[in-house]
């Protein structure tokens, strides 16, 4: 018999994240394209972003036939959050300008690149990137390269720039709770022994 789970956050009832999950408005629209391999990931931070943002949508798959119609919405100016030589730094959007439709691939770097390859319409979008030097709060895993963030952290950092001075840090509360829960499950001593060099000073 399957264990009961919260229908909203999909966590067991005694670890439900809904009380920690905000419901934040934003001018920007966030479209997350999630590779299917990420859907059952223990953290699944893309889902946390969808739950915490009023103007966010999560789609799961490899080929998204509906993308051209989604990107053609005249109410928004679409861009792709993905690093690269041609990516431009994110800048605040002026109040009288069209809000941003921020397209965010969700997966490992290899899977994210596959999403771009399988959906050529994404190549036609302007690319934007986050500032260098950002550090992930995911203390249980060493980032594969400098500046690598979880999908949720990347979305928070992007919205903090696009909609400055508004802040979206509240989206990280359930993410932090998940990490602390994993640390508690493994035990503090085991965590220190295996991950002590990754823990941030608090």
Question: Which properties best describe this structure?
Answer:
202 residues, alpha/beta, Alpha/beta knot, 6 helices, disordered C terminus, tRNA-uridine aminocarboxypropyltransferase activity, transferase, EC 2.5.1.25
Rg calc:
17 Å
Secondary structure category:
alpha/beta
Question: Regarding CATH, which class?
Answer: Alpha Beta
Looking at the structure, what is the overall shape? Answer: globular
Low-confidence stretches: 197-202
Question: What portion of residues belong to β-strands?
Answer: 5-15%
Measure the end-to-end span.
Answer: 41 Å
CATH-defined fold name: Alpha/beta knot
CATH architecture: 3-Layer(aba) Sandwich
- Major sheet details: 6 strands, parallel
Spatial ordering of strands, largest sheet: 2-1-5-3-6-4
């Amino acid at each position: 018999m399957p264990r009961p789970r919260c229908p909203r956050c999909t966590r067991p009832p005694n670890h439900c994240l809904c009380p920690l999950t905000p419901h934040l408005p934003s001018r920007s629209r966030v479209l997350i394209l999630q590779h299917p391999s990420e859907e059952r990931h223990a953290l699944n931070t893309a889902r946390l972003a969808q739950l915490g943002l009023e103007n966010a949508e999560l789609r799961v798959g490899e080929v998204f036939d509906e993308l051209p119609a989604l990107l053609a919405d005249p109410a928004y100016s679409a861009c792709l959050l993905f690093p690269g030589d041609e990516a431009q730094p994110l800048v605040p959007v002026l109040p009288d300008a069209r809000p941003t439709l921020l397209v965010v691939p969700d997966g490992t770097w290899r899977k994210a690149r596959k999403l771009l390859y399988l959906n050529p319409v994404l190549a036609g979008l302007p690319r934007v990137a986050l500032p260098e030097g950002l550090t992930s709060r995911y203390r249980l895993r060493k980032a594969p390269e400098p500046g690598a963030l979880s999908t949720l952290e990347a979305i928070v950092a992007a919205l903090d720039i696009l909609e400055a001075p508004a802040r979206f840090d509240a989206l990280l509360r359930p993410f932090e709770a998940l990490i602390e829960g994993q640390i508690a499950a493994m035990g503090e001593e085991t965590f220190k022994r295996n991950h002590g060099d990754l823990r941030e000073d608090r």
